[in-house]
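User: Predict Outer membrane beta-barrel protein's structure from this.
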Amino acid sequence: MKKAILFAITLLTVIATNAQRFHVNLLGGVSNYAGELEDKSFTLQRAKPAVALGLSYELTNKLFLRGQFTYTNLGADDKNSKIYSHIIRNLNFKTILQEVNLVAEYDILDNYTHKLVPYVFAGVGVYRFSPYTFDTLGRKAFLRGLRTEGQGLPNYPDRQVYRRTHINIPVGGGVKLALSDNIKVAAEFSLRNLFTDYLDDVSTNYPDLDLLGSRSAMLSYRGDELKPPIPFPGEGALRGNPDQNDAYYFLMFRISYRLPFGNSSQNKTSGKYYKNCPPVKL
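Assistant:
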């Protein structure tokens, strides 16, 4: 316990001493998803609101270490598709998505000497999702537990039950505008490269519906809900595209505030930090 208290005091001291190197970031914008239930790789037609809160540490005038928590919703529906095989599949999903990431952000120009600068960033993140839908009676159904493609069944040993928490690779860029040394605004676009194809619960082929429970079979293929109903295409027919993982992306606007406290002052022209020293008498 004493060690934990000592560590906390040390950490707070370091933060207080270097406070002017920290920037608090508040972001708001929209998110969207790319996968089997969306015809286009990028579109804002079905974008959902997204918010984020983070902290940046200024390593140099142009290089920042940035951590961030993001909250959003994702979803898509075959009813919006123009592809016939998707329309008759008639699937849909929604999910709440939460993400924590850590990225390196690099300004192409020095934002202390240039008011408007482009920047890029990349890093690693951890996100959690849980796709769900509603059945014909309006009941919410979480799809992972229903194993709609036969995941985990002995008949399909190559189909494992997917995890709801994964690692991703965030990459992106934007333009940053300095309103003052302490306040900056930015607009950025970012993409999350994923290592799963089950963000939407759709990936491979249709299983034998007789091997699934009744509710799982009902939500594995929903063409029979259409008017007129479309017959089940049969076991082995393509349900998704296993050769390409899903993805999601953001268009965000950011306001950053540099913490003004600490025992250092900043040269506003160069952006370099100097320790407080007594004036030199000539």
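The CA atoms of residues 258 and 277 lie 22 Å apart.
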